[in-house]
Design goal:
The chain has six helices and 17 strands. The termini are close together.
């Protein structure tokens, strides 16, 4: 290996934004590659995995809470030498320093500079913002059927939403639940015709149209929901054991502004190497435009993004391998 050009003191090889599965996996790979890396995790933004009460589908681990799994990731990353700090990133901007093109990452603690950045800031589910939703989160209220469906075997389930995701989740949940009521505010579903036909042909699915869930109630866990017909104004209680909210996801990418290309939903657009539209910026996990939101796919994204960042930084430094 040819000796690399010296980078001015205080400039990291890579700054990783986000302390979820994608971020810590990227950090693990960066640390093992001997990159000078820094990860910023935010305690003010709760990631999807932290909201998951029990994870059973992460390879090699039979059962674990989301909080515990992230703690394992963090411990491993720090043991390999990854520097971790807390902060909520406000902006990412380009700059020049001592002849080097750098990226400046600003949070409430100040500004750090790096040759590359990995955005792993995740996404958060859109909420109904109704009474009981927050109280019973993880106690019957869920935002991921793949994550939590198996815990509702032979149970009564409500799915809120009418798009493709909601209908797909409802169909998936019929593998476990005794009955799945799909509650949607319009008089018809928004999902594709194929999905609507599948839902209509499934005897376990019951459509509750022109309706909204106004309140989720119970004691120690979900016991039912108050549903209102938007046309008649009539309210009624549906007994249930779980409420799955599927009204969309919002990527946590607002701090990026127009630094990188994003789609209409705000998701960062990346290629197969997790490269964004800007040189030196990579993205991984649920902040990206992708089809399947799972811990294991986020980890894969983080590994690829870290490898791409390493190659980019090596090229900047003039590193050549024989």
């Amino acid at each position: 290996m040819v000796e690399a050009k010296r980078v001015p003191e205080g400039i990291y090889d890579v700054i990783i934004i986000g302390g979820g599965p994608a971020g810590f996996t990227a950090g693990i790979y960066a640390a093992r590659a001997r990159m000078n890396a820094f990860l910023v995790e935010s305690f003010s933004i709760t990631g999807q995995v932290m909201m998951t009460e029990t994870i059973e589908n992460y390879p090699g681990i039979e059962k674990i809470t989301g909080f515990e799994l992230i703690s394992v990731f963090k411990k491993q990353a720090e043991s390999l030498g990854l520097a971790v700090g807390q902060g909520t990133v406000k902006s990412v901007s380009a700059a020049e320093k001592d002849g080097w093109s750098v990226w400046q990452v600003e949070d409430e603690n100040g500004t750090r500079e790096a040759l590359s950045v990995i955005i792993a800031s995740g996404a958060y589910p859109k909420k109904l913002d109704i009474p009981g939703e927050e109280e019973f989160s993880g106690k019957g209220v869920s935002y991921c059927a793949t994550c939590d469906g198996a815990f509702f075997k032979d149970k009564e389930i409500i799915v809120v939403g009418g798009g493709d995701t909601a209908v797909e989740e409802a169909i998936f949940l019929t593998r476990f639940g005794k009955r799945v009521r799909l509650v949607h505010r319009k008089d018809r579903l928004r999902a594709s015709r194929v999905l609507q036909e599948r839902a209509a042909g499934n005897k376990k699915i019951e459509l509750v149209l022109d309706s909204v869930v106004e309140e989720i109630n119970g004691n120690d866990k979900v016991g039912g929901a108050t549903v209102k017909n938007v046309k008649t104004g009539r309210k009624g209680r549906i007994e249930c054991d779980g409420v799955f909210v599927c009204v969309g996801w919002s990527p946590n990418t607002g701090f990026l502004g127009d630094v990188v290309e994003r789609d209409e939903k705000g998701c960062v657009i990346v290629d197969d190497g997790k490269k964004t539209s800007r040189e030196g910026i990579f993205a991984a996990g649920d902040c990206c435009k992708k089809r399947f939101h799972q811990v294991v796919t986020a980890c894969g994204d983080g590994a690829v993004a870290s490898h791409s960042a390493q190659q980019y930084v090596d090229e900047l430094k003039g590193v050549a391998y024989k």
